[in-house]
Amino acid sequence: MKKTKNYNKLLEELSNDSGDPWMVFKIMGEFVEGFDAMKNIGPCVSIFGSARTKPSNPHYKMGVNVAKELGKRGYSIITGGGPGAMQAGNEGAQKIGTKSIGLNIVLPSEQDPNPYQDLELHFKYFFTRKVCFAKYALAYVVLPGGFGTMDEFFEALTLIQTGKMRNFPIVLMGKSYWGGLIRWIKKSMVEEGTISPGDLDLFYMTDDPAEAAEVIQRALEEGSHARPEWKLQIARARRQASRLNAENRIEQRKAKKKSSKKKATKKKPKN
Fold it and tell me: Which residues 6+ apart lie within 8 Å of 178 measured at CB?
């Protein structure tokens, strides 16, 4: 996919800030642009993971499938917009027909926008981008990833733990990948008393995309009793799911009809 003019312009500016005062205006501009573009985005889930995950990697398929499962339930998908696991999330969203959003970060290497985005935004600053992830997502899905993925995961846990952000579902996907980290957290952090045992309840771990989507749906429904805004978002998700299911049934009927016509043509005897 070609980089947009906006992307190239931001890349040129990476090392050309004109001092702190002007940087403040650039930061404000990113917030305004992001908030304006996403204000009517509807119920979403953010999916995180490594930019280096290859399409042949089972984790890529996991990302595609969890996005599809969430899409079936009416949730749009937000990713970092790049390759790897991010592309998997956007691809799954487009395959199922739900909205696919990419919050791209401008980097000198590694981060090229993937071609599966319905809405493509570009950020120069990581922190403005992370605010948009958190502000517009009802839940996080965290696929195997590196430092950036861990940063997004642990920042969300920190903000929830300290009461700076509402408690919302966080699902880790890839038990064999994350298992060692979770064992270390239990063995070192809990036993040393640097976190509470109850903090382990802030996230859930699975390998099953359908289970991940169900865990998120159930947590949101249970939490909606205390959060009226969640109730509204769940209602919107259900309406979107009904629309998508109806559209998919129509497409399936069309495909079936087309296939039947082809078979009938093949069977037609030659004169």
Answer: 142, 144, 172, 205
CB 132 within 8 A of CB 103: yes
Total residues belonging to the chain: 271
Domain assignment present for 170 = yes
Question: Which residues are 46's β-sheet partners?
Answer: 78, 140
CA 265 to chain centre: 44
CB 124 within 8 A of CB 106: yes
Amino acid of residue 4: T
> Could you tell me if residue 270 is inside a domain?
no
| pLDDT for the residue numbered 181 | 97
Cα distance between residue 238 and residue 73, in whole Å: 7
Assess contact for 216 and 70: CB atoms under 8 A. yes
When pLDDT is cut at 50, 70 and 90, the band that residue 246 belongs to is confident
Alpha carbon distances (Å) from 176 to 5, 84, 183, 188, 219 = 41, 19, 11, 19, 24
Is residue 147 a contact partner of residue 154, using CB atoms and an 8 Å limit? no
Asked whether residue 75 is domain-assigned, the answer is yes
Instruction: Write out the residue range of the structural domain in which residue 92 sits.
Output: 20-246
Q: Which residues pair with 77 in a beta bridge?
A: 45, 100
Q: Where are the alpha helices (DSSP H) in 142-208?
A: 147-161, 175-184, 191-192
d(CA 82, CA 12): 19
Q: How distant is the alpha carbon of residue 242 from its chain centre?
A: 21
The dihedral formed by the CA atoms of 180, 182, 186 and 190, expressed in degrees to the nearest 10: 130
Closest CA to 169 of 195, 205, 130: 205
Could you tell me if residue 45 is inside a domain?
yes
Calculate what percentage of the chain has a pLDDT beyond 70. 87
Convert the pLDDT of each residue in 77-124 to its tens digit: 999 999 999 999 999 999 999 999 999 998 876 568 999 999 999 999
